[in-house]
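Hey,
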Amino acid sequence: MTTTSKLKLFTPIEIGPIQLKHRVVMAPLTRSRSEQPGDVPGKLMLEYYAQRASDGGLIISEATTISITGRGWFGAPGLYSDEQVEGWRKIVEAVHAKGGRIFAQLWHTGRSSRVETTGDATPVSASVNPSYWEDASHLVSAPSGWAQPSPHRALDIAEIPGVIEDYRKAAARAKAAGFDGVEVHSGNGYLLDQFLQDGSNHRTDSYGGSIENRSRLLIEVVEAVASVWGGERVAVRIAPGGSWNGMSDSNPTALFAYVAEQLNRFGLAYLHIIEPRVKGNVVIDEGQAPIAAEQLRKIFKGKIIAAGGFEPDTAETVVEKSDADLVAFGRHFVSNPDLPKRIQLALPLNPYDRDTFYTFDARGYTDYPFYEGLATS
C-alpha cells in the first residue's frame, strides 16, 4: 500500500506556466451563494473560497455566467459586470494570500434556463428540442424555485459571433479580477455541450451535422478566450458520454476524440474530463473505472484533470497510472475545507449534506469543520 508520504497526488506539477505543489484540485461547484440582485460574489463566498485555498493548490471556480442571457441558475455568480469583477477580485486575493491558484470557469447555460433568469429572453440552444422542457425530470434553479426549463429556441447563426464575444469579454473580466486563468465549461449539457452532441444539435448549417461542424463553436470560443489569456492559461471541461441535462450522442467516442485532438493546438493549461459514471453530482455507476480519461490520454498531449466519483485512493490510482495528472474533487471539497491535508495525512473526511448543496446561506457552506489536529505534521 502506498504510504501518505509517497503519494503521487502530493508531488509538484506545472499547468501551463503555473507551478502547483500538489494535484488535489477543487472542482467547479455551483453553490448558489452569490449576492442578489446582481449575481455578485460577496463576503460569504469570500469566506468559502478562502477556507478551501491551500498552498500550491488549484481551485476552479464555480460555473460563472458570461452574460445575463446566459444565466440559468439562480444564485450563481457572473463575470459580466464591474461589481462582479470587484467581488471576484477579493476572492482571488484571499486564495493567493494562502499560496493557492484559481481559474474562473466560464458558463452559458443555453436551454437549461427559464425566462425569469435570462432577463425575459428566450433561452437558446443549438436546436429546438421540445422533449427537453417537457420532461418533468429536468429542473432548473430559478428565482421562483426549482422548475422545468422554459421553451428554448435555436440560436441563429448570425447571433453566434455575439455569444463568442460574450465569452471573450468574460475572459477579460476574469483577467481584470486577477484570476490565474480560465476554464471554458463545455460539459454537463450546457450551451457548448448542446452544440457538440447530436442528441441536441440537429442543425444543418456550418455548426451542425458533422463532428467537425458541431465542434466549431467550442473551438471558436477557445480561440477567443485564448486571444485574451494565451492558450497556456486556458482550459476546457468536457463530459464524454455524459447524460446529465438530457444529453446524448450517437458516437461519443469519435466526437470527443476529435475534440481532444483539435484542442491540442492551443497548448492548453489542461483538459478537464468528467467521467460518465457520474450524472450531475450523483455517481450512477459505482463500479466503472475512469474510462474517459484513459481513452483521451492517448489523444490529448497536455495535462489532464480527471473528475467524477473519485475517492482519495482511486484518485491516487488514476494519477499513478498516468491516465490523469491531477484529480478534481467536488462533494468531498464541499464538506472538507482542508481536503488536501486530510488526504495527505490519511485523516477521516467529514460527510457531506446534499440537502444544503444548493441553498442560500452559511449552513452547509462555510460551517464544515477543519480537522482539529491539522497543525500536527
